[in-house]
Sequence to fold (375 residues):
Amino acid sequence: MARLIYADNAATTELDADAFKAMTPFFLTEYGNPSQPYSFARMPKKAIKEAREVIAKCIHAEPDEIYFTSGGTESNNWVLNGTTYLNHTHGAIVTDNIEHHAILRTCESIERRGYPVAYMFADNDGIVQRKALESFLTNKANLVSVMTANNEVGTIQPIKELCDFAHSKGVMFHTDAVQAVGHIPIDVKDLDIDFLSASAHKFNGPKGIGFLYIKRGIKILPYLCGGGQEKGLRAGTENVAAIVGMATALQKNVINLSANIEYVRNLETELLKLLSQTGIEFKRNGAGEHVPGNISLSFRGKDGEMILHRLDLMGVIVSTGAACDSKEIKVSHVLEAMKVPKEYALGTIRISLSKDNTFKEVEQIVNILRQILIT
Ligand code: PLP
Fold:
């Protein structure tokens, strides 16, 4: 089989070689527990401090506003639970119907405990408009949570506008920025958000590590109780190697951000141009600004899962937007929310390109799609 073409970078990314190199001493030689007072803990303790500073700088935060977690899912769970149960009289959340399941399932569990959650509707372009928030935000709300970039269709949400409106009503604002951090510029000070979730494996860091930005002075309940790590809010011995790997990967991506964005956007344009030239009938889901490289394509009358498996057999890795459960093919909640017609939605794949893909690979992807779809 020819070399694998990995085009599922919104699912996870390749670990950066420098990140891997920076991590190794903390597995092999510098394995001291950073909480201990002796000299053998000095290196891991220093590494955590420096990683926190690096990460803070990458998103224009202060180091004491960065809390290490096990990834995006945990960061999202922490914000939603930790703000709702802190405030028993106003434990209401406003979110939307195209969020990742790490938000939606957490909201469902919060609802089961008797706290109201309101779900705004994204429009057919995959955008949560300010007018949706205006009509859903009541004086009972405590927190608004809207993702920065959608994982399935790549659309970028008007976070600053939504956050400003929530703040004008005295409501806190969280954004799940898992698909955005390391891929588009993020400035938490400019956005003035209260919480931001991020995950290292989406920006060439290791899996199982992420962070939550909590604006200085904002209150939240602890997520894990135990030792005093992360200022007593998220206890447990730190995953030093992963923290160092995350900081190294993020810093590298942020330093190269403009060049990466331009390169990936060019790859994207080329893919769409070549695909249009094949004569295959398709539509791209989601309008407006996209996170670079995230391309959701629907092929009318085709079967997305079949396309995924045939691409897989030919060495191309992508995702689908419709999956088969035991009885039927289910369209994803995002495509459903965007009201993508079923004959298109069922034939959806997500190609997510990164700085590690090449123009040659883009050409090969289109050629293979042509073989699969023009039969
Ligand atoms: N939020 C979004 C938007 C995501 O795309 C993902 C992962 O796909 C997550 C949250 C979950 O992140 P993690 O895999 O780090 O738990």
